[in-house]
Amino acid sequence: MSVYILAIESSCDDTSAAVIQDRKILANFIANQAIHKDFGGVVPELASRAHQQNIIPVIHKALANANISKKQLNAVAFTNGPGLLGSLLVGASFAKTFSLGLGIPLIPVNHMEAHILAHFIEDARQQEPPSFPFLCLTVSGGHTQVMLVKDYFDMELIGQTIDDAAGETFDKAAKIMGLPYPGGPLIDQYAAKGDSRAFRFPYPSVPGLDFSFSGLKTSILYFLRDRLKEDPDFIEKNKYDLSASIQHTIVGILMKQLKKASRETGIRQIAIAGGVSANSGLRQALLDEQEKGDWKVFIPPFEYCTDNAAMIAITGYFKYLKKDFSSLDISPFTRY
Ligand code: KG4
Ligand code: ZN
Question: Is ligand 1 within 6 A of the CB of residue 188?
Answer without folding.
Answer: yes
